[in-house]
Write a structure and sequence with these properties.
Helix content is about 50%, strand content about 10%. The protein has about 425 residues and is of the alpha/beta class. The longest helix has 26 residues. It has 18 helices and 11 strands. Helix 1 packs antiparallel against helix 17, helix 12 packs across helix 13 and helix 15 packs parallel to helix 16.
Length: about 425
């Protein structure tokens, strides 16, 4: 069997297979957009971000520009007082005009503009702004999804945030857009029960500052209400590297969070047959002056994941970790538990060399029983470059693995390739969230 045939099959399958992007921070246009556009309507607190100024001021690029123009020259508070356009102009000048855009975040902007038919070599952003200003948000979503070959976008819906929750309450049909799927995000229930309990009490749920049985019952009622309201396809939390199950005996904050996880969240997830997603390893606001750009990662505990999978065998778990050193152990844990689906190369793992390494490791340990990537996009346009770049890497890894299988004596068919790619880019997720 000629390797060139297999490589051609892989290229075609990876390029043509639509993706279900299982984790993003994108929103349907009904959630509002702060971006000036052809509709003539903007919502300053809108949640759908798109366009050149949002793309260039993404927090990866904010952190990167401060490597070049430090806070001693441009104080953080001065930067945040700039308009979005001024921030974008500053970043474009220093990261794209005065030097080559070699980082993955910068290259992503170049790829996005190129795939949209724009010349990324412009010395300023004026023509790009005209291009995006002529767009209508819903039409542009269709365009981006077509270019990226994404057929479904999974949102991250943070009901503990007043801005978003109020939109759901004001418009129960706010998420009735077939291109988007809701996910119920629950970080405060595990990370900050004191704050979460106050918010729940304000919303009319009879909870107290104690994580007792009465509070657990009310949290379950809250979860059921919002799963049904949203039609959430899974529940999700982002957790720090220190997250442990069982909780340390000397940490009452952690103990309250574990109580809510084990007695409220996981039983409710099982009741409604929705998976629970854990994104573990984010240490927040190490440099708070950078805002969203001020977080880092840390080594997490894979035994915690194994213990949860073992103690709650009727629950389905998604998991990704932020630290490179966790990736091998996490894949090994997934070999032991069929109720665990490892997914994506999250955040600081989302660079080509690491995506390549992790995807190879997972294929060698798990075959095709994992989800190789999610975009984690916060700006709609990022779907284009994140999937353009990831498809190339996933395809190259598959080519190498097929070549090894052929060398061992296996006959690969084009149907094998199409089936494997469909599992990796779409069906593994679709099947795991299926009711």
């Amino acid at each position: 069997m000629e390797t060139t045939n297999i490589n051609s099959w892989v290229d075609s399958a990876v390029r043509e297979q639509p993706v279900w992007d299982m984790h993003t921070h994108l929103y349907a246009p009904t959630f509002g957009t702060p971006v000036p556009n052809a509709t003539g309507q903007t919502d300053p607190a809108g949640l759908l971000l798109w366009g050149i100024d949002e793309l260039v001021t993404y927090h990866y690029l904010v952190a990167e520009v401060y490597r070049i123009v430090p806070s001693t020259k441009l104080p953080y508070e001065q930067f945040w007082k700039m308009s979005k356009q001024q921030q974008a102009d500053h970043i474009w000048k220093h990261l794209f005009v005065e030097r080559a855009p070699l980082s993955e975040a910068c290259r992503g902007v170049v790829t996005t503009l190129t795939k949209l038919g724009l010349d990324p070599n412009a010395k300023n952003l004026n023509e790009f702004r005209k291009y995006f200003a002529a767009m209508k948000p819903s039409d542009y979503i269709d365009k981006v999804m077509k270019v990226a070959n994404v057929n479904a976008i999974t949102m991250t819906n943070e009901v503990f945030t007043d801005n978003e929750r109020n939109r759901w309450i004001a418009n129960p049909n706010v998420a009735d857009d077939p291109r988007f799927r809701p996910v119920l995000r629950l970080d405060p229930l595990i990370r900050d029960w004191a704050g979460a309990s106050k918010k729940l009490a304000d919303l009319g749920y009879k909870v107290t500052a104690e994580a007792n049985d009465a509070s657990v019952a009310e949290v379950r009622r809250f979860l059921g209400d919002w799963i049904k309201k949203m039609k959430a396809i899974y529940l999700a939390v982002s957790l720090p590297p220190e997250f442990r199950y069982p909780a340390p005996s000397n940490d009452p904050v952690a103990a309250a969070g574990i109580t809510m996880l084990t007695k409220a969240i996981l039983p409710t997830a099982q009741e409604y047959n929705v998976p629970f997603a854990m994104m573990i390893g984010a240490r927040q606001k190490v440099n708070p002056s950078l805002g969203d750009a001020g977080d880092i990662g840390g080594l997490a505990d894979t035994y915690t994941v194994a213990k949860l999978c073992a103690d709650f065998p009727n629950n389905k778990f998604f998991c990704t970790m932020l630290c490179r050193e966790n990736q091998h152990d996490l894949a090994v844990v997934a070999r032991k538990f069929g109720n665990l689906m490892v997914f994506g190369c999250w955040w600081f793992m989302n660079i080509p060399s690491i995506i390549d390494e992790i995807t190879r490791l997972r294929l060698e340990l798990l075959g095709t029983t994992f989800i190789p990537q999610h975009s984690d996009s916060r700006v709609l346009d990022q779907l284009i470059y994140k999937w353009e770049h990831s498809r190339v890497i996933i395809g190259n890894v598959l080519k190498d693995q097929y070549a090894k299988a052929v060398a061992a004596g296996w006959k690969i068919t084009q149907d094998n390739v199409k089936q494997d790619v469909k599992l990796l880019l779409h069906d593994n997720f679709a099947n795991f969230v299926a009711k």
